[in-house]
Model the fold of this input.
Amino acid sequence: MKVLITGGAGFLGSHLTDALLAQGDEVTILDVASDLKVLHNIGNPRFRLVRDSVLNREILESLIAWCDYIYHLAAVVGVEHYVGDPNQVLNINVNGTQTVLNVAFKLQKKVIFSSTSEVYGRNLDVPFTEDSDRVMGSTRIDRWCYATSKAVGEHFCFAFHKLGLPVVLLRYFNAYGPRLDQMDVGRVITIFLGQLMRGAPVTVIGNGRQTRCFTYVEDVIRATMAAGVIDEAVGRVINVGSNEEVTVSELAELMIRLSGSTSTIKFVTEESVYGPSYEDIPRRVPDVRLMEEILHVTAKVSLKDGLKQTLGWFRNNQ
Ligand code: UDP
Done:
């Protein structure tokens, strides 16, 4: 198959690229990122990298005409961006998605859209089924711009599906693994990793009782690949996650133990890290029945094993 991955040079896209190439597919990536996580594939005759934006409709027309189906992963992700540059988050995530869907509709190519568990916001009623409510804070809190942008993307997907476009929507729950972000930035795991490597205190925000279900990239990619080829997934939104719920304090303790670092935990306020435009999400747990029933995928890698792999990779590669 010929597969186009927008945002394919990022964390998930790079792992998806490797997996698709390994099974013999042809992969084209459209990405503007400066940190390209796919350089190891350059030279593979079935791989092509196009450095351009999802807002460039002309480029999209030619790439979408070429491919059999599209993974639309291009997005601005990471809490520091939600509070630092909400305009960029909204522009790429909303207008980029609309452009991809418009062209895909014109050319009648299936789109697998990467959404997020963030769309459930601070709903306390876990586990979240795909029909659970979205509970967001005020628009004065920039943190919610990402959840809102992805929810708009989901609405666009369903609207195009109503018009006849095949779409699949995946809501990822805190995916992690090798190549996640640079150490010290991005998501909590890479921030903690940087601190652990330097022996600096691990900064747990708030009281550390907020929870997440961190999902190892290998499991995420199995679900993502299945979503591309299983007909029953079309027109559906599906949670992709582990149901191993941990508090952020537990995550910090586990990472300290696994790394053998001398770091201790330091509790810090939300405001001191992300400023006044941040609000945390107290619990985030997926209901994984649809992932199991439709995609036939169960998250298998425990947090402990996934963190060991991740730690090992960052030690050798950063
Ligand atoms: N977090 C933390 N210390 C940090 C960065 C993040 O305790 O230095 C917490 C954050 O407040 C949240 C969790 O870790 O409760 C996950 O944060 P992340 O930014 O990775 O993703 P989120 O799940 O919030 O989108």
Notes: Residues 79, 118, 174, 187-188, 191, 203-205, 210, 212, 248, 273, 280-281 surround uridine-5'-diphosphate (CB under 6 Å).
